[in-house]
Design a protein that fits this description.
Blueprint: H1 5-10, H2 15-33, H3 37-45, H4 50-68, H5 71-76, H6 80-104, H7 109-137, H8 143-172, H9 174-194, H10 217-224, H11 228-256, H12 261-269, H13 272-289, H14 291-301, H15 315-347, H16 353-382, H17 384-395
Helix pairs in contact: 2-8, 2-9, 3-4, 3-9, 4-7, 4-16, 6-7, 6-9, 7-16, 8-9, 8-13, 8-15, 10-16, 11-16, 11-17, 12-15, 13-14, 13-15, 14-15, 16-17
Length: 416
């Protein structure tokens, strides 16, 4: 795999980055093709109820995050490319157990839950290793360009994947899209292998072994850094509240307001164009105004939109309101996300990136799972619109958690 799309995709960032970028796009497309496949399998094949479906999304993510905690320190002191390939191959293998069990007539809910746990843990571990690998592939000055390309790809696959996946589910059933998702991870592993290059094995301090206290190193570093600490709390709360409101909006739109499935799909596919535009503007905005100002401005602007979802009504007006709110939110996130990802990498010494990203992702996924469960209860107690309004009102306070002061230079890397 020495030729092909890698050099073309990489551009001025080089063919090694091109292969990594292509691998990311392939797995992202596979994930969006299979969007909603697990709940559909649970409902249509296993006849699961609401509690089981909720557990599939929340418990699977939370347990997967807990499983990933010890993997952060483990990843830190190993070559990252083999770890990335291993996580892709693990997801490929575990996802294929679903169509195999379905074909044999032995597929059960517990298996779906276990697969979701493994996939969640592998995803967190992959993200932790990929941050370090990216820093080794591109110069520091090109990190924002690289992250902007990843962000653009994420929104592009969000636009393309769900409609194609929906068509495939209609023609072939939800199990077929799980196969497509599994194959995408195999192709991703091959793309990462094609990045090539020598990667020295990271070394621990002489005589040091992995200790129980090492599991908390990522959190200790984040909380000790005056710039990362507020950003950490901001993203955990913001992401959690946005994710928690989504099931309530689903029930409101598809249930009480009677939107057709195609209208629902349009309401969340069309706004992804805003994310694509925002990701393209992130680099020039950061170059002109600075990373810190972009984080502060767009971190604030993204919090202003979601409260509008509480006023969603019937018909075309309600659909246009959802599209407008989601477009504004996603555009701001499209600018914010690559700058934030780059800022986080630049503030973190290479020897601590894997542990830091593991701690960060575990926290955001766990907070999202807990808040989703809590907002499900609030939706039942208060009603859908009041619960959506409460989520939006709390989001208005999240800008206070952003790093308002211009940060001091990143601390000098210390031994791991």
């Amino acid at each position: 795999m020495k030729s092909g799309l890698g050099p073309l995709l990489g551009g001025r960032l080089g063919p090694r980055f091109g292969w990594l970028w292509g691998a990311y796009g392939t797995s992202a497309l596979g994930t969006w093709l299979a969007f909603g496949a697990f709940p559909l399998i649970a409902i249509r094949v296993l006849h699961a109820g609401p509690v089981e479906v909720a557990a599939l999304s929340s418990v699977g993510a939370a347990v997967g995050a807990a499983v990933a905690v010890p993997l952060g320190p483990w990843v830190e002191f190993r070559p990252k490319r083999p770890v990335l390939m291993a996580m892709d191959l693990a997801r490929f293998a575990v996802l294929l157990t679903i169509p195999a069990a379905y074909a044999l007539g032995v597929l059960g809910f517990v298996q779906l839950l276990l697969v979701s746990v493994v996939v969640a843990a592998a995803d967190i571990t992959f993200r932790a290793a990929s941050g370090v690998h990216l820093k080794s592939l591109v110069p520091p000055g090109d990190l924002l360009t690289a992250n902007s390309r990843f962000e653009s790809t994420a929104w592009t696959t969000t636009i393309v994947g769900p409609p194609l996946g929906g068509a495939a589910i209609g023609l072939l059933g939800p199990v077929a899209t799980v196969v497509a998702d599994a194959v995408s991870y195999l192709l991703s592993a091959l793309g990462i292998r094609a990045t090539g290059g020598d990667e020295p094995r990271p070394e621990r301090r002489s005589g040091a072994r992995l200790r129980a206290s090492d599991l908390l190193d990522g959190w200790r570093y984040i909380l000790a850094d005056p710039a990362l600490r507020p950003l950490f709390f901001n993203t955990a709360v913001f992401n959690g509240l946005v994710v928690a409101a989504q099931p309530l909006l689903d029930v409101l739109m598809l249930g009480r307001l009677g939107f057709a499935p195609w209208q629902y799909g349009l309401a969340f596919a069309a706004p992804s164009l805003g994310g694509l535009l925002g990701s393209r503007l992130a680099r020039p905005l950061a170059a002109r105004h600075g990373d810190h100002r972009v984080l502060l401005v767009f971190g604030t602007l993204r919090a202003l939109w979601p409260i509008g979802l509480a006023f969603t009504g019937r018909g075309t007006g309600g659909l246009l309101l959802v599209i407008a709110v989601e477009s504004g939110l996603i555009f701001c996130c499209g600018v914010f996300n690559p700058v934030y990802a780059t800022y986080r990498l630049q503030r973190t010494p290479t020897a601590r990136v894997a542990r830091t990203l593991t701690a960060w992702t575990v926290t955001t996924k766990t907070s999202a799972a807990l808040l989703t469960a809590l907002w499900g209860c609030l939706g039942a107690l208060l009603g859908l619109r009041p619960a959506l309004a409460l989520s939006g009102a709390l989001l208005l306070a999240t800008p206070f958690l952003l790093p308002h002061r211009t940060p001091a230079p990143a601390p000098t890397p210390s031994p791991a």
